[in-house]
């Protein structure tokens, strides 16, 4: 799959976490968040779009061309795939209260935490040009930003909306980078693993 298609899919799915917040988080986050099958579906679209961005960044060799650079691109695809297993469970059995359900749910924040370090790796690799090099880190700052907002103001509908808008905007820009950055002849397309 080429980067134009991956970027289009990434940009199309980027707002779906915000849509989920709008539909299911209007009473605030945390325990008040409404777990529904629709929430699981929206989350599958969102995580799948994120995966498209990661495959596109792999095509661009955003973390460099070393063996360790390839690992930096495989890890998020693994953590996001596990997060999507949780999303599928959310579709089938919303709000299940089992150990495995909660364990799989942890891969949402694990994926976001890894994105922070991935963003730093992209900056250091200097494969993306100009401002584009910094966007993966801005995306990776979503989790710390959301935690900070919650610590300052508490979990509320307003915080959910601000966090959702931040997510929608930054992940859309990441998809735009995948869409617009040329893949040079020396770079091969990576297989799509979703």
From TrEMBL:
Domain of life the protein comes from: Bacteria
Transmembrane segments: 38-57, 69-86, 106-125, 134-153, 159-179
Keyword terms, alphabetized: Membrane, Transmembrane, Transmembrane helix
Name of the protein in its database record: Uncharacterized protein
Organism, scientific name: Rhodocytophaga rosea
